[in-house]
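Cross-posting from the modeling subforum.

Setting up a comparison between two proteins and wanted a second pair of eyes on the formatting. Protein 1 (sequence, then structure tokens):
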Amino acid sequence: MIATICLALLYLASALLAWFDLRRGIIPNWVNLAIAVIGLARAAILDGWTAALGAACEGAVIGAIVWLLRRLYFKLRKFHGLGLGDVKLLAASGIWIGVAGVPVQLLVASLAALAAAGVMQLAGQTMTRQTSLPFGPFLALGLLVALALQQHGWIN
């Protein structure tokens, strides 16, 4: 019952995140915080406080690594390729799917974004290297897919 409620809240938060990022180009902090808090509550209720602490640590490490990669990219290219909202979403995602799930999340998100860019190109919209495409909705999709794969035992 608790797992189902938490999953439903994650779906709702993911839908809100996608809507905000597509409409406004930002991911509100409160949405990322909600995803993180729901994940921590789920871990604490289902697996205990030790598991919740471990999940929080994994999320923090993932967030720190992605933030450092974002800084490095900026130093090399002189523009941000990833917004801070995306970094925070990856940190919150780490609470749900851990270090093992984030590569799957990133793969699904990247392939979905590439497919969306291809469809936009085919629809007549000019796509260049400078064309901005909100990545949050694709990261949210990747989170949900990675979580489903974990729940079915396909990834640990």
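Protein 2 (same layout):
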Amino acid sequence: MDTLETVSAGKGEPVPQQLRVLFNRPDDVKVQKLPCALPDEDSLAEHFAAGSRTVPHTHHNGQHLVIMDSVGVVADDTGVHVVRAWDLLSSPPGGWHWHGAAPDSATTHVTVEQPGDFDLAVERRDRDTAYAPEHGT
């Protein structure tokens, strides 16, 4: 093992300008680039304030999420799912989804995916209006 980094809630930097479109409330999200020795893969910790999340999107090559703490939500074609610390999710290539914090709980998750591999040109539907984006997407 060549590199090691600890993930802790609240750590991280503001969302970079080129990624702000990926979040419903980018000012309520922090990102932390993590070491990743896997070829062609990248890893981030994403720290979400209560109620913040990504907008619907896909990854051409899929994505893994590891929920690190608290309670979060993930939506896919089958509905909205409550997730908890140490849940592991794997979105298949091209799988429609969004993910983030529950309305009343901040959360952190770690992503593993190919850098820049997300597509926002997807249907902006939601399975549960309690988790709908704030600006009509």
